[in-house]
Amino acid sequence: MQYDGLAWAFALLALLAALVAVRILFERTWFLGWLRGTCGLAFVAVAALLLVLAWDLRSYSLLKPEQPMATLSFQAEGPQRYRVLIQEGANERSVVLDGELWQLDARIFRWKGLAALIGLAPGYRLDALSGRFLALEQQSRGRRLGLSQSPLGVDLWRWLRAGEHDLFLFEPLAGRVTFLPMADKAVFAVNYGVAGLLAEPMNLAAEEALRDWR
Q1: 47, 56, 97, 167: which one has the fewest Cβ atoms less than 10 Å from its Cβ?
Q2: What angle separates helix 2-25 from helix 33-57, to the nearest 10 degrees?
Q3: Considering Cα of 62, then 150, then 192, then 86, what sign does the dihedral take?
Q4: Are residues 97 and 174 located together in one domain of the fold?
Q5: Domain extent at residue 77
């Protein structure tokens, strides 16, 4: 996988930094010892950071044009409560969501420059699934369920977004399917295109829910 390869590249850089740190810290002739010690510890810190970033990148999946980013299947478990089965390729997980509408947020890494020219595909990670009630007095009951977590709080995507950086490699984008109706047995496919994230009804229950809601 493309993003696994990127993670391995970060891991190799981390190993290189660790080897440099060992060379500096265990050099027998401690000329300018304090400076060497400081540089060695700095390389240890860099190696640790690169390893954590590599682990963070492994949580991203390749966007494949021939298949949806995710498929969401809804099953009613009670009044305004649904079990949502989220399928990403061969991986499945389920969450319980309260409300009448759902919203999906995702993180996108889109390649730029030479990487884009040679055709490297974007990567994504589902970020959160939210439920919302239509009645004003119930809206405080809506929840936002996190679907992913970065190790040790080191979040490359968020850091790049906050600082408006791109590392000359890729730009971090945010995608969102804005609130759509939930219904028993409804199935939606979520795709990524030029306009961002788009949800497509995949069965009659989803089509009827959209028609009644609009």
Answers
A1: 167
A2: 170
A3: positive
A4: yes
A5: 61-213
For 66, half-sphere exposure in the C-beta direction (CA atoms, 13 angstrom radius) is 0
Q: Are residues 52 and 67 in the same domain?
A: no
| pTM of full prediction above 0.85 | no
At 69 the pLDDT is 92
Q: Which residues pair with 190 in a beta bridge?
A: 70, 199
Residue carrying the six token digits 């009630």:
133
Same domain, 86 and 32: no
Which residues, 6 or more positions from 2, have their beta carbon under 8 angstroms from its beta carbon? Answer: 62, 120, 121, 123
DSSP for 127-182, written as a single string: EEEEEE-SSGGGGGG--EEE----GGG--HHHHHHHHT--TTTEEEEEEEEEEEE-
